[in-house]
Each structure stands twice: as C-alpha cells, then as structure tokens.
Write a structure and sequence with these properties.
- This protein starts with 11 loop residues before the first helix and ends with a helix.
- It is about 65% helix and about 0% strand.
- It is mainly α.
- It has a single domain, classed as Tetratricopeptide repeat domain (Serine Threonine Protein Phosphatase 5, Tetratricopeptide repeat, Alpha Horseshoe).
- α4 runs antiparallel to α5.
Length: about 120
C-alpha cells in the first residue's frame, strides 16, 4: 500500500522497510517487490546486483513475477547481468509453469527467436 499510495500516503522508504521484513520472513512476493525497488532505485539506492539476488530468491520461492523480472534482465543483458537468452527462456518457462500468462508469452517469444 505504501509503494503505490493505496489508502495511505505513498512512501517508498516505508515500502522498502516493509518489503524487507516480508522477504526476510520468507514471503517470496516481498522479495520480488523489494527487488523491484532496488532495480528502479525507488526508496533505496539503485543496485542491480541486489535486484538480481532478490528476484532469484523470489523466483526460487515460486513467485512468477520474480522469475519474469529476472528473465527480462537476462534477456537484455542489463547493467550487472550478462545477456543469456537460454537463462532468460528458462526463467520465463518457470513463470509459465507457475501459471503466469506473461511468462508463457515471453517464453514463446524467445522460443520463436524474437526478443
């Protein structure tokens, strides 16, 4: 709620604090959201290495969005991540296996050879 300002005044710093608690408590969705904060530099200093770590933890915890976000980083070879289309496709496939339609779409796009 603090992240998007739903029902409370938007506060990215508070969102980072709460996502950190959720992730530390084993809630994969919290890790994914915290990864996004590091990725974008919202409420915390931008750190793509930390974003990769958190997206990986989220994906390993069966959060499809974490898999998708990490897959996108590998697809483009974003700062701090070497481009690896095979790894990207693997991550999108995992998101698809977790019943995420976007993951299935991105997997199919890479399988066809599109970026």
């Amino acid at each position: 709620m603090y992240d998007i300002g739903e029902g409370v005044k938007q506060d990215k710093f508070k969102a980072v604090e709460l996502y950190t608690k959720a992730c530390d408590g084993g809630f994969a969705f919290g890790c994914s959201n915290l990864g996004g904060m590091y990725h974008k530099g919202w409420g915390i200093r931008q750190d793509t290495t930390k974003a990769v770590e958190l997206y990986t933890k989220a994906c390993d915890g069966k959060d499809a969005e974490g898999c998708i976000n990490l897959g996108a980083m590998y697809r483009t070879g974003e700062k701090g991540v070497l481009q690896n289309l095979n790894r990207s496709m693997e991550l999108f496939g995992k998101a698809c296996d977790l019943r995420n339609e976007r993951g299935c779409d991105e997997y199919a796009r890479l399988k066809r050879g599109s970026r």
